[in-house]
Write a structure and sequence with these properties.
6 helices; 3 domains; Reverse transcriptase Ty1/copia-type domain-containing protein; RVT_2; Nucleotidyltransferase, domain 5
Length: about 280
């Protein structure tokens, strides 16, 4: 996603571009209309108010609240795998997610041409991986979609995790991301939360960074990824996670300031006292 903006005194136009899809907004509706008039030479189609973008359904109400959901995309994904009527799961992963993969060596079977594709075939696995990555508005899937890393030699355990995620989506497809409007000129609240799971990977004992960045209470970035090095203590793992979220906060702050939006002092929530003391001395 690229972001372009133009200032003209107190007026401003902001355009987000993703491949051949555009989102345009401005301080006045007339500025948006003028933008599309100026870009008419490129045969850009103006769909007026946004209702769908990158597979997400967008709803805006009279209370200045935006809601994002992917219920339609989830229904389509479940229908593709014949799971429209499955019982939902309360969580996308279980405690077995951190089991040593070396103990789960049974691979998915190849396609049986004589009997046709089975539910656990490799081709369907690839389709499921693409489908899960097409659900970008779910913070709860950051850890569970790690199963899609096994694209070369997926195991049966990976497929079971994938089916669990699909059942979770079936039971939570109506969940939405909400962002409320704020008073004109009011400073935006940008805050971050970081955490770390020390030595979580039982294969190489690398820790996992987890974190989220909120803008006026709405998640705008979330991360759950394995750290590059092996942390020697819980404090080191937490410090690494906190530094990752700090970089993201600074990036968002710079972007908001460039488009002339004021930002409150940014708090970072860390749940490790040793890491907090280390951060305060840096």
């Amino acid at each position: 996603m690229c972001l372009y903006f133009k200032h003209d005194g107190s007026d401003m136009v902001v355009v987000g571009v993703y491949v051949d899809d555009l989102l345009a907004t401005a301080t006045h509706e007339e500025l948006v209309d003028k933008f599309f008039e100026d870009m008419a030479v490129l045969s850009i189609k103006n769909l007026i108010y946004v209702s769908r973008f990158l597979g997400m359904r967008v709803h805006y109400d009279d209370h200045h609240v935006y809601e994002l959901d992917q219920e339609v995309a989830i229904d389509e994904l479940l229908r593709k795998f014949g799971m429209e009527n499955v019982h939902g799961e309360r969580a996308p992963i279980g405690k077995e997610c951190n089991d040593n993969p070396a103990l789960q060596e049974e691979l998915l079977p190849a396609v049986d041409k004589s009997t046709g594709p089975r539910f656990g075939d490799f081709n369907l696995w690839s389709t499921a991986c693409c489908g899960l990555h097409a659900i970008p508005d779910r913070t709860s899937l950051s850890q569970s979609t790690k199963a899609t890393r096994q694209t070369h030699q997926p195991r049966l355990a990976d497929w079971e995790l994938c089916k669990r995620v699909l059942r979770y989506l079936s039971g939570s497809k109506s969940v939405k991301l909400r962002m409320k409007g704020c008073n004109s000129g009011a400073a935006l609240r940008l805050e971050g939360f970081s955490d770390a799971d020390f030595a979580a990977d039982k294969t190489n004992r690398k820790s996992v960074t987890g974190g989220v960045v909120l803008l006026n209470g709405m998640p705008i970035l979330w991360v759950c990824k394995k750290q590059g090095g092996v942390a020697l203590s819980t404090m080191e793992a937490e410090f690494t996670a906190a530094s990752h979220i700090c970089r993201e906060l600074l990036g968002f702050r710079q972007l908001l300031l460039e488009i002339r939006l004021s930002v409150e002092p940014m708090p970072l929530m860390v749940d490790n006292q040793a890491a907090i003391k280390q951060l305060r001395t840096e």
